[in-house]
Amino acid sequence: MSTGDVKLLRMGVVFVWLATAVVSLWELNGQSMELLARAGITDHRVATALIVLGAGADFLIGIAMAVWPSRRVYLTALLLMLAMTMVASVLDPSLWLHPLGPLTKNVPIAAALWILIRGAK
Which Pfam families does the entry mention (predicted)? Predict the structure, then answer.
């Protein structure tokens, strides 16, 4: 894989993380809150804290991948994504069946991160 291909792959993954952070906060009192309410998390303060913490983690990982790309950062991103996927799977397993793939998209993202991990220093 060429250096340009690796950079394009990295920027694509960075975009996903940063966009997820922005959309999570943009939809704080909309889809984000509804998702947690469907999972039984109805305390507004708890749900808000979870959304803000998740968006913050996504933002920090996205910035870290953009500014300090390294094996450690990619591995952290992969582990965070796997943890969030497991939590989401427990809270709302139907997300695996959603036609737009809110959880199934994580499979190719995991593959992209694995490629970045293997090629990073």
Answer: DoxX_3 (PF13781)
From CA 111, how far away is CA 121, in angstroms rounded? 18
Residues 6+ positions from 17 with CB-CB distance below 8 Å: 58, 59, 61, 62, 65, 77
Tell me the C-alpha distance between 72 and 60, whole Å.
14
Say which residue the tokens 């190719």 belong to: 108
Question: How far apart are the C-alpha atoms of 14 and 39, rounded to whole Å?
Answer: 28
The first and second tokens of residue 34, run together, are 């509804």
Q: What is the pTM (predicted TM-score) of this model?
A: 0.90
Tell me the domain boundaries of the chain.
3-119
> Phi and psi dihedrals of 28, rounded to 5?
-50, -50
